[in-house]
Amino acid sequence: MKKFQKPNKLTNKIEEIEKLNFGVHIRKLTVDKTDIYLLFILHVINRDRFSRDIIEPILRWENDGALTIDKLADSIIYMDDISIDEDENNIIDYVLNGSSVIIIPSEEKYLIANTKKIEKRQSDSPEIENTLRGPKDGFTENFYGNLSLIRYRVKDVNLRIERMQIGKRSRTNVAIIYINDVANPKFVKEVRKRLENISVDGIIESGYIQKFLLNNAYDLFPQSGIISRSDKASAAILEGKVCILVEGSNLVLCIPKTFVEFFDSADDHYDNIYLGMFSKLLRILCFMIALTLSSLYVAIVAFHSDILPEQYILALASFRASVPFNALLEALLMEGMVEILREASIRLPKQIGPAIGIVGTIVIGQAAVAAGLVSPLMVIIASLSTMCSFVAPDYTIMNPIRILKFLLIFITGILGLFGFVMGMTLITINIISHNSLGVAYMTPIAPLNLRDFLNYFLSDRNVTKERPEFLNTLDKKRQ
Amino acid sequence: MMKKLSKLLILCILLILPGCWDYRDINERSIVLSVGVDTLGDQVEFTGEIAKLRSRAGEDMNQNLAEGTYYMEAYGKDFEEVRIHYDATFPYPIFLGATQSVIFGENFAKQGIEPYLNRINKFYDYRKTLITIVSQVPPRELYKINQEKETSVGLLVEKIVDNLKRNKMTVYSSFDELLSLIQLDGVGYLLPYVGLKNDDIAYLGLAVMKDSKLVSIIDYEETDGLIYALAEKPVLTESLFSSEDKENKASLRTAVKRRRVKTEYRDEKVVFNMDLLVNGELRYQYFLRPIPEEEEKYLENLICQKIKKDITNIFERSQKEFKCDIFQFAKHFRAEHPEIYRKLNWEEAYMTAELNVNVEAEIINLGLTDPNVDKK
């Protein structure tokens, strides 16, 4: 590149960028003796728009008078999202972010056009929050698309979308979304503070942020929920919660989130009031089954068979007559096998996944019973507890259970029902000790708040006219 | 960090090394289904049935659960010695959690069952809901009877007795009631009495226990009075002859709707007043005939007489033959006249006691479901 005749801070920057050699293209256009420099990174810009809306109008320009940045912005360029800046140090940031920078060497300011190319997929039914009733538009990896899905549902002027960039190197866009006159300002402030304090090289997925939001990095239970459906995110925002949208992630975070809320599904709010109540109770029961069934089996078979009626004792003993392993080993073996199948079915290619699932459950289960390795009852228990671990709408609450289940089986195998109670006590203490942005994790059960308790179980806007008390929202009434 | 890890390791080792002290899988225990206690000469005899477990791997799941039972037998001069002999013959430790019945032989019952009741009470693994039964034939013979109705004789006996109690056809004290009854002087209790009838195991009546010793047997057919007086909301079926047509019988289901027992102490005599309100439902007649109002009254009167007679007969037998308060009137009297009760020797007072039974019966349903009954 030739030396600039009249070097200034912008031309110096162009030379500096050229020397750095990190993939920035510099395209020079000459129109009516005026040199125009376009700075961009080829693979992050939308090349069609760049050629059609920037290069083409500039080259076609045939007017008298000097070409200036202002003129380019006002009457030549077709781009919608443009801005003007004077600080030459921001040029690299703009270019890295997918924008194109237009510099006229004789000027002190430059033009930035947002030509960012976004690879996006169609919004379709989310895979982790399936629903029978309810909209199917799930979030995608497209940041702006996700924002538009929320905006589409909540048209309130008070909806606030605070944007920030997190990640020194990834510079990931993150948005804090809430309704200004509903959400508790303390929550918004705390979320903002925690996000601002994140000092990391990159944020690739919302899971990174979720970990930074934990009170303690070693906490077992999640303190923020994940949402993959826009209707659920909008409902959470309307409720007075704060949602966090992360660029490149199809899962929106929702905070504060209490333990029982993990068992609340959007369907409960759309369907009949009784069905909602029933479903919630069923999910909580399933949580208990997933956690305790195998360890109760160990306790009953190995220590306290007396608690069963006599016919059951005989059936249980006869089922186990040929099993060479003791109940503890049998339970650990079967639960371990189910976990292997679960892990494998997630990783397997979609085409053979279901086939392997059937092979795993039916063939291995049946074969293990026929071979006398495990009792049929243990197969039923392991299958039931695995099925139960899938009922929570937000699966993250079940992940700790998968680990704690083994702990509980082990401690029950050593100490019987006494060990079981010890284990359950420790788990309960752990759950109760958690908090999400200062909201007690077991709210509204501990501390007990009857109004919130009913609010939670009734899941009907027609009956529950006020927002939950524990959120301490600015606007307390829903209707 | 290393310190923490080593502490954790020590804790784990401590927990694992005791070898899971009570750990024993259910299939590695000898599951006792029924225990028989009797005497043979001067020796105590323990018999019983132990579940025979069978591997069911790869078999049809609809098959019967237990194959059957093993018979066990042991002798000794006392319970402890018998247990030692008993334990010496089994590969697995005895598990009494599934034992639903303890069957006493007549010989042992006559000598007194209180020591074994105390044993059941103090053994933590015995179920406290089990049924104690007196057997006409020694348990060792009872257990050897070949029957196909249930997987074991113990189970069959327990089911027969339990079924009769559920249907209000017998009345006996459960094990937890026995524990309190044996503390009351002069008060007897009733246990189910089983034996052989036409070479089949059957319920034969009630064994009367005084001071935990068998004193007499009440036949099944003679237990109605006790059921009316003691069972909770009893329902019985009576067959009565019609006043006009002696060939015709009416089957009536009687239900005690209200029973009140009041006690008095009059002229140094204990008096029990029992008021019964009985509802009758005509189930069917052997030959369908219209029932006029007078006939209805007649039947009501007949029921009253029958119930009154049943109760007084058994009361008189309890005074003359059993010499103990099998109606457990002592509990009523003690509650109503605690001061007098303390001064009385209940056994003597009961022998001279008087029982007034007042029965009111009302037929509430004539079973006229056949609209053509008048034309017939």
Strand content of chain A: 5-15%
Quaternary = heterodimer
Strand residues, percent of chain B: 25-35%
List the secondary-structure elements of chain A in sequence, H or E.
HEEHHEHEEHEEHHEHEEHHHHHHHHEEH
Main β sheet profile of chain A: 5 strands, antiparallel
- When the domains of chain A are counted, the total is 3
Estimated structural class of chain B: alpha/beta
Whole-number tally of structural domains of chain B: 2
The main pleated sheet of chain B reads as: 9 strands, mixed
Q: What is the CA-CA span between the terminal residues of chain A? A: 67 Å
What are the segments of chain B in which pLDDT stays under 50 over at least 5 consecutive residues?
A: 61-65
The portion of residues assigned to helices of chain B is 25-40%
Give a quick precis of the structure:
The complex is a heterodimer of chains A (479) and B (376). Chain A is α+β, with helices and mostly antiparallel strands.
Give an account of the 3D structure.
- The complex is a heterodimer of chains A (479) and B (376).
- Chain A is built from 17 helices and twelve strands.
- Chain A is an alpha+beta fold.
- A five-stranded antiparallel sheet of chain A has the order 1-2-4-5-3, sandwiched between helices.
- In chain A, helix 5 crosses helix 8, helix 10 crosses helix 12 and helix 12 runs antiparallel to helix 15.
- The model of chain A has no long low-confidence stretch (mean pLDDT 88).
- Chain B is of the alpha/beta class and 376 residues long.
- Chain B has two domains: 184 residues, no CATH class; 154 residues, Nutrient germinant receptor protein C, domain 3 (GMP Synthetase, Chain A, domain 3), CATH 3.30.300.
- Helices cover 32% and strands 33% of the residues of chain B.
- Chain B is built from twelve helices and 13 strands.
- In chain B, the strands form two sheets. In chain B, strands 1, 2, 3, 4, 5, 6, 7, 8 and 9 form a nine-stranded mixed sheet that branches.
